[in-house]
Each structure stands twice: as C-alpha cells, then as structure tokens.
Here is the input.
Amino acid sequence: MPTRSIVFAGAGVFGTALAQRLSWNEENRITLYTIEEDVIADVNGKHQNSKYFPGRHINTSIVATGDIASTYEADVLFLAVPSKVIESFCHQIHGKARKDMLVINLSKGLAEDGGFLIEKIPFNRIGTLKGPTFAVEVMNGDPSGMTFGGTKEDHEYMREVLTRTGITIDHSTDMRAVEFLSVLKNMYAIAIGIVSGRYSSPNVDFLVMTKAVSEMRRMLRLYGCNEETIFNYCGLGDLGLTALNDLSRNRTLGLLIGKGFSNDPKSTTVIEGLRTIKLLGELVRERHLEQDFVVLEALYSLLYMHTSLNDYYLTVLA
Here is the structure.
C-alpha cells in the first residue's frame, strides 16, 4: 500500500510527466490537482492527459481532482503551476495545509519583483527540484538527473520518493543557487542559439557556451549564491540541455534571431529567458558591470537597444 501522499499542484506538461515517473514507486500515492476540468475528466476516465500528451496513457493509480483541499494533507506538494501564480497559490493554501508538508518548487522563473520564487513560499519545509529534463523524455521513462535544493534531511527523503523511478538527484543546500541557475540557463540558451543560427558550428557554440558558464558563475557570486552549484545537474547539465538541443524553446528563439527571422522580445511565444535578459541586463548596466557580462550585455543590446546582429557577433565572438 502507498505510504506517501504526493500531490502536484498543476497538471500541465512537466507536472504530468514527473507524476508519471513518481508513480513507478509503489510507495507513492499520486494526486494531480488542477482547475482544468477537461484534464480531470481525462485522467480519471481514460487514464490520459491528452491535452498535454495526446495518445499517451498514464498510470491508472494516478488520480486528478479540482478540490484544493487535496493539497492540504500531502506529505510532498510539488508546485507545477506557472511561476507568476506561485506566491498567490501558496498564500491561498498556507493557513489550511499541514505545517510539516514538504513543498517543492518545479516552476522556473523569477518572482514579479525580480526576487527568488523560493523566498515567496511561506512554508517551513521547502525545496526546489531543477535539472536537464525535457518533459517528453521524462514521460518516456528515459533516465534523467535533477538537483534537489534543500536540507540534507529532505534530500534523503526525496531520494526515497524517487526510488525506482529512474531519476537520479544530486544535492545543494543553496536553494537560491539552484533556482537562479534554472533562470540563467534560459537566457544563455538564447545567446548560443543566435550564433548557432548563423554559423551552425560546434566550435562557435562551445566558444559562447564557455563564456556563458563564466558569466553564470559571476552572476551567482553577485547574488551571494554558491557558484560551485554550477557543477550540479541544475547548472552545466541544464545549460547544455537547453542551449544545444532543438527541443528547447529558448534555443529555438535564438536560432530564429540568428537566421534573421525575428528579434522581437514581444513575441507571443512564451520564452522565459527574455524577461531575465531585460531584468539582469538592466542590473548589469546600473552597476557598470558590462565588461564582466559581455554576452548578457550583447543580448540586452540586441533585444532591447536594437543594435545589429553583426554587433552582437563581433562582441560575443571576440
């Protein structure tokens, strides 16, 4: 019989994929909480989530519900809702939920005020789980690695949750660093995508990727985060996945820009990296750190100051 109640707030692409993998561990009882009534009916009636994974079946032990009370008594609550609603959702359930519940953020992004999402979660036990994981491959059952940010005790607990799922985790006690790296890699994936769009050259890709890694470490240091976290799955692993694979939306945007199709930051495509470029590009300029963040400055200038692509290439490839 299942011994742990695992609830996912949000039944979108990644929430569904990770729920499927956690269901491989028979000690986990998985519930998807969602406001999408068609998803609830599909999961409970047909054991599918055809809205996000058409034609794919999910474990018959997974149930879906629209009752928010399902989140109150979870042993582990995974936040798989959009980053912009993390804070409001957590405050909505905080007064009614178990005080010892482990709340883990899966969403990637910064808070509306530019702060860290993890600092907006008003629970006693919190963590973050990030890493090089395309949802479709998680759903397919491919071996995957992620970084758990949180206490050592909760890391050990999460290893038990993930037993027999084919997902390996490493660990950092610096939750802010784990969260920040998941944001930084998106904008640098755009940067690398741009040069890939023009040159289609591994030499050029890794030239810029090496610069990106250096800048990511400097940005971690600037924010008082542990820069060694870049060597975890959430760092180099996630940057490589996002920057060098065409399943990545951020890389795809970079490719389009590099080929001359688009450089409009108001694109209707949801690209997490664009907001980060604007926010951190302005921060770098305010602190006169342009020479320390050459790739970021070139990205910001291209997308928000309307400099030319040629200027971008000359800067990042110098």
